[in-house]
Design goal:
315 residues; 11 strands; 29% helix; DUF5996; DUF5996 family protein; alpha+beta
Length: 315
């Protein structure tokens, strides 16, 4: 299939809203059932050959070890436990309310007593209503959801290639269900003293200097898919640093984002190369201004072994 196919937000916005809430339901189960990791690394989804997975979880919440997978080709939710029990149901045809009930019932059927501490959407317009009350969001276009997973898979591998160029502390490439973006973050060893009023999410996510790189499918602020990067804390002079043609510095939250719109990338002959060049420029802009040892942290071809010949065999 085409690398980075067209994915205009307007063509699947209703489906995206439904899917986003489905993912938040399962994501909140993952949040409650996974051992805690620094910077919330236990929270996001990871990609599979057909969709998304929570990876194995359980034990910390008293449940057996279990996994929840979204099959976004067959459009089924699949729950599996470590003792071999499995159950699934079709995702299409559900409201958020019926999906929520079906997920919990399916897990009970394999011996998992899942709990969601706050059973309502996070940071969405209907966050004041519970999942079980939501009979409004019902649209689920299977072709659009499969395309979403295919684009995610393509972006995932470009980000893996970018991640391999850094030998310092870095997150996995992972898919956050609260904002529906895929991201990878590089960290320095420098602590950041976030104020108490910043809240637990921010205090944990940005307890070290960080430069994050990601992609999202669009929202009310940027109503189209885009690649992005930001530096925390944002250094003075960041927006004065150069970015590749077609990229821009944009206001985002309390600071600025480096932004490269998906449609702009689709105009390039080397689409992956354009994204990698954008990420590299955004990284150097933040890292050099924050005083990171950029050259010392570089990791050409994902290798730190000084004796391995470039392109040579592994053994």
């Amino acid at each position: 299939m085409e690398f980075f196919p067209a994915m205009p937000l307007a063509e699947w916005s209703d489906t995206k809203r439904t899917l986003h809430r489905f993912l938040q339901i399962v994501g909140k189960i993952r949040l409650a059932s996974s051992p805690r990791r620094n910077h919330w690394w236990h929270v996001p989804f990871h990609l599979t050959g057909t969709g998304l997975t929570t990876r194995p979880m359980g034990r910390v919440d008293g449940n057996p070890i279990f996994t929840i997978d979204f099959d976004l080709v067959g459009h089924r939710l699949v729950a599996s436990s470590v003792d071999g029990r499995t159950a699934s149901f079709p995702v299409q045809g559900h409201s958020v309310s019926s999906f929520y009930r079906e997920v919990l019932g399916t897990l009970e059927g394999i011996g998992v007593h899942a709990r969601i501490e706050i059973p309502r959407p996070y940071d969405l317009p209907d966050s004041g209503s519970t999942f079980v009350e939501d009979t409004e969001h019902t649209v689920y276009d299977t072709a659009a959801v499969t395309r979403y997973w295919q684009v995610l898979s393509q972006v995932n591998l470009v980000m893996e290639e970018f991640a391999a160029r850094f030998s310092g502390k870095t997150s996995p490439v992972h898919h956050f269900w609260h904002t529906l973006d895929i991201a990878v973050t590089r960290f320095s060893d420098t602590p950041v003293s976030q104020p108490r009023e910043a809240g637990p999410l921010i205090r944990e996510a940005y307890s070290r200097e960080a430069i994050s790189f990601g992609f999202w499918f669009g929202d009310d602020t940027v109503p189209e898919p885009a690649f992005y990067s930001y530096t925390v804390p944002e250094p003075d002079g960041l927006t004065g640093r150069p970015l590749p043609d077609g990229a821009e510095w944009a206001t985002g939250g309390s600071g600025h984002l480096a932004l490269l719109r998906y449609e702009r990338v689709r105009q390039e002959a080397d689409r992956a190369g354009a994204v990698l060049a954008f990420y590299e420029a955004a990284y150097r802009a933040g890292a050099e201004l924050r005083g990171w040892p950029v050259d010392a942290l570089a990791c050409a071809d994902g290798v730190t072994d000084p004796f391995r010949r470039k392109g040579g065999p592994w053994t």
